[in-house]
Amino acid sequence: MAGGEPETAPPPRSNLSPLRSVASILPWLAAGAAFLVLFAAPIEDTVRLWLTDADASHGLLLVPVAVVLAWRRGLVPAGREQPLIGLAMLAAAVLLRYVGGLATERFAMRLSLLLAILGLIVFLRGSRQVVRWWLPASLVLLAMPLPEILLGTLALPLQLQASRLGAWLLETRDVPVRLAGNVIQLPGHRLFVTEACSGLRSMSALLAVGLLIGGLWLKSSWARCALVVAALPVAVLLNGIRIFLTGFAVFYVDPALGEGLMHYSEGVAMFVVALGVLGGLACLLTLMEGSRPQPVPLPS
């Protein structure tokens, strides 16, 4: 029998390796459990409002879009964690969550949830990752339902502005109209511009659409800001036109056209027009971006 090197027995497997793998994930499991315990109430409150409040239902669309955009953007190459800044943000989020819970301020509690998520990102991947995900983070912020006191403060001026614009447009078409606050009085009929007709819902949606179009289509920060800012007057103007069309149809055609399905259809149609206007503005801003002079590279 030919001689050869003696066979060496394989090293015995350590019985501690499974325990070490479990021990390595225990801190992450504990951190996840602590996060859910601390922020379960803001998560439940936000999801409930998305499902039950029509003014906040756009969050059901914005958050999945934000997740997809973050996944497509990916991680920053060679991202470095910043534990000190991340821990500071997490501590601020916990403090805001505690103060918001004491004051029963649900909007502060929802902001604490967003701040905690950003703190975790900074802790694990650094602030450059937050900058890379600026568009998804902005969409999530817009998805957060506004506090009731702010909604009431914004709704009344928008109602009055839409009423004045609608009444003025009716007067230009020789429709006898009398304006009393948010009530447009026509012969034999009165139009009430309610809080739902203030345009606040369409304004929130148009802001999100403008931000999304600007982030995906436009390249310069000034063009993106211009498109988002333009969404505000577009929403106010088209809401006034909607009130004018409703009053015009009520006076000249049939008072029943101011209610029910027809009234709802007008709102949907005007929102489609608003999307077209924003798309046209985005095209114009794209042309303006291309016409701006590019910086001349310095000779080497």
What would you say this structure looks like, in words?
The chain is mostly helical. It has 2 domains: 30-145, no CATH class; 149-290, no CATH class. Helices cover 72% and strands 4% of the residues. The protein has helices at 17-52, 59-73, 83-103, 106-125, 127-132, 134-143, 148-172, 200-217, 221-252, 260-291; strands at residues 178-180, 183-186, 189-192. A 3-stranded antiparallel sheet has the order 1-2-3, covered by helices on one side. A hairpin with a 2-residue loop joins β2 (183-186) and β3. α8 (200-217) packs antiparallel against α9 (221-252). The chain is elongated. Residues 293-300 have low confidence and may be disordered.
